Amino acid sequence: MPVKPLTEAELRLAELIWDAQPLPSGELVRRCEEAFGWKKSTTYTMLKKLCSCGVARNEEAVVTARMSREEYHRRQGEAVIQEGFEGSLPRFLTAFMRGRGLSRREAEELKALIDRWEEAGDE
After folding, report:
1. pLDDT digits (tens, 9 = 90+) for 3-15
2. pLDDT per position as a tens digit, 74-84
3. Distance between CA 86 and CA 82 in Å, rounded?
4. To the nearest 10°, the Cα dihedral for 98, 101, 102, 104?
5. Which residues pair with 65 in a beta bridge?
6. Does the pLDDT value for residue 95 go beyond 90?
7. What does the record list as coiled-coil region(s) (predicted)?
8. What are the residue ranges of helices labelled H in 39-122?
9. What span, in angstroms and rounded, lies between the C-alpha atoms of 12 and 36?
10. Alpha-carbon gap, residue 85 to 12, rounded angstroms
11. What is the DSSP letter of 4?
């Protein structure tokens, strides 16, 4: 299921939550004021946005993530490939690498990833 892309401010708040969860909401307000200069109302407005899109939750004044950082970024990557490249990972990689090339290390990492996938028998 796709997740809407987060704004820069929303992503900064999500990063703070991912790094410090579980977090009492009062502590989140304090950290946001310290890190971003946000007022309490701004923090709660931004938190409400993260909760409404399924990235975070605020239950009984304790803030936690509903999805991991890795899950969020995976879903964002899938959306880019689906929307921009008709779901084709090879087309995405070709466009991404055009004019850039791969280092030997990157090529080895990709080959190892493909080898692991083939050994697992995934399709």
Report:
1. 789 999 999 999 9
2. 999 898 888 88
3. 5
4. 160
5. 56
6. no
7. none
8. 40-52, 69-85, 89-97, 104-120
9. 9
10. 28
11. P
Residues written for the chain: 123
| Mean pLDDT across 77-96 | 86
pLDDT of amino acid 26: 96
Tokens of residue 80, six digits: 């880019």
Taking the CA atoms of residue 63, residue 67, residue 73 and residue 76 in that order, the dihedral angle to the nearest 10 degrees is -110
- Asked if 64 contacts 53 with a C-beta cutoff of 8 angstroms, the reply is no
Which amino acid is located at 106 in the chain?
E
Give the residue-averaged pLDDT of 115-123: 78
- Walk me through the domains of the chain, giving residue ranges and CATH numbers: 8-69 (1.10.10.10)
Answer yes or no: is pLDDT of 122 > 60. Answer: no
Under DSSP, the state recorded for 55 is S
Distance CA(55)–CA(76), nearest Å, equals 12
- The vertex-28 CA angle with 24 and 31, nearest 5°, equals 135
Helix (H) or strand (E) holding 58: strand 56-59
Q: 64-84: buried (b, 16+ CB within 10 Å) or exposed (e) per residue?
A: ebebeeeebeebeeeeebeee
